Task: inverse folding
């Protein structure tokens, strides 16, 4: 996994390749604030951690979530983040399927100092994923998008950061 990680793009390099929703990607990245207590807790986590993200620029969940995770990595001294295009890395994607069958993104893979996978997160925070599986799946795409946009705007990435922190805590 080390080789793939090293060949992946940093978040800022990835942003240069984004063709869809470009302004939204930038706006979310510029607006996210990571709480000081989260960063203090990360300082207590031993070692260096690597976050390998599978994403595509057209994905509405990715545009709302990947910048949040990128800000977490940007602000933490012991996290590094790289991004791979899902569609060009299906071998990795196919080992991180949602419910064992769906290539849903984004996916955040947690790697330790030796680039050994310690867990993964995605494609959405728990509350919105639960809603999606119970109700959203039966809605039209515009109805679903309206609901998820409201959720992401209200949540401001807090649940995503909390769940990524849970992943790191469990691996530490």
Result:
């Amino acid at each position: 996994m080390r080789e793939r990680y090293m060949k992946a793009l940093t978040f800022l390099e990835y942003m240069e390749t984004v063709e869809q929703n470009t302004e939204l990607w930038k706006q979310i990245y510029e607006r996210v604030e990571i709480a000081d207590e989260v960063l203090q807790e990360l300082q207590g986590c031993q070692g260096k951690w690597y976050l390998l993200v599978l994403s595509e620029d057209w994905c509405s969940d990715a545009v709302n979530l990947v910048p949040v995770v990128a800000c977490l990595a940007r602000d933490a001294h012991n996290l590094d983040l790289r991004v791979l295009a899902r569609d060009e890395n299906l071998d990795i994607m196919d080992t991180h399927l949602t419910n064992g069958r769906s290539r849903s993104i984004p996916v955040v893979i947690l790697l330790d100092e030796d680039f050994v996978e310690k867990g993964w997160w995605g494609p959405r925070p728990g509350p919105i994923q639960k809603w999606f599986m119970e109700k959203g799946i039966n809605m039209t795409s515009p109805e679903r998008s309206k609901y998820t946009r409201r959720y992401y705007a209200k949540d401001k990435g807090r649940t995503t950061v909390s769940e990524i922190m849970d992943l790191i805590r469990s691996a530490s």
Observations:
- The radius of gyration is 15 Å.
- The chain has a mean pLDDT of 95.
- The beta strands are 49-55, 79-85, 107-111, 117-121.
- The first strand starts at residue 49 and ends at 55.
